[in-house]
Amino acid sequence: MTGPSIFDHLSGQLARLCEIADIDPGAPLGLLGDLLGPTGSRPLSEPPLWPSNVADDHTPVEFSIACNVDEPPTLRILGEALGSPPDLATNRSAAYRFLNKHAHRFGLSMSRLALVQDLFDTVHPQGVFTLWHSLVFRRGRQPEFKVYFNPELAGVGRAPDLVEEALRRLGVGRAYQTMVDHAVRPGELGRRDRLTFFALDLHDGPHSRVKLYVTHHDAEVQDVVRAAGAVDGVDVADIAEFCAVAGGGREHFDGLPLVGSYTFTNGADEPVGYSLYVPIRGYVSDDEEAHDRVSALLARYGFDGGELDRAIKAVTRRPLCDGVGLIAHVSLRLGPPRPGVTVYLSAEAYRVDPPRPPQVSADGRLAEGPADRAVAEHV
Fold first, then answer.
1. Against a cut of 0.90, is the pTM above it?
2. I want to staple 210 with a disulfide (CB 3.0 to 4.6 A). Which of 20, 264, 271, 294 is the partner?
3. CA torsion sign, 22 to 273 to 337 to 212?
4. CB–CB of 373/282 below 8 Å?
5. Segment 291-304, tens digit of pLDDT
6. pLDDT tens for residues 144-155?
7. Interior/surface letters 206-229, b for 16+ CB within 10 angstroms, e for the rest
8. Tell me, what DSSP letter sits at residue 307?
């Protein structure tokens, strides 16, 4: 007996998430199986084949629940397709095979991807990934697809030129310098401030997006407040308050980095939205503490905390105080097309990280120590 497989573990979680979101599980489960491919049959008793950066324990899938203003919650999967044997190049090929298989069935729009694909097809890719997928499920609608490219796959130093050219080809090149001026601290481009994701929605609807993500290492709250100021109409006070609650009152995020993203929609040549992603797992002792902070944020923005509780029960049965990392991130989305709060849940297929004792900082305040990893590239 080999025991349950990675697909067994993930499909059970996904089926329960679909049930609480009132979504037909047929398409989500089928897409999950295709995304995992042959890897899905690998027993959980064996270590992961590839050190996927999707999750801390290298599970190549992460779930999230997006709470939206004036819309039902959205269920999402972030995943990395794995090649055989997995490496950066074969994983990229597997990712494109997954897209090509489903492009016709789900009416994917590949035109914008075709405009920039060659920029991200370096022969000898570098970094932690090449191409990830986001699968979005809304009640009564066809699944939506998004791809995440790695701007650093030709080297960290090449990322700015690559991103600028990609934005130019997509008709929004003029906004590049505005974003850099707001999001990057002087002299820190490619150092503490890095361009880590370039994302495209694969549909032609009015809310189809292009997104640029900037990771802020060793950041102060004021750094992401300044970054959000590049977007007209965004209340930067919301960013500061969100950081205060998610971070337990800290001003300096010296462990896992903060991540911000700029959103472009069809017809807009300036960013119309800004999102902030706080890696809450790096700034709490356990998931019970993370749950309390996220519940407070959901209440602050008028969302039902019961959705979070039901989602957690769909993913795990362990007491929240017995580990840290189940609640991986929490994000605030400001501006169109869908403002709201998103909670990211780790599948914990391979490992549950133990709770961490709180530490006392130099000023006498309780604070958690730096997290184990130096880089978190999640959205």
1. yes
2. 264
3. negative
4. no
5. 999 999 999 999 98
6. 999 999 999 999
7. eebbbbbbbbbbbbbbebbbbbbe
8. H
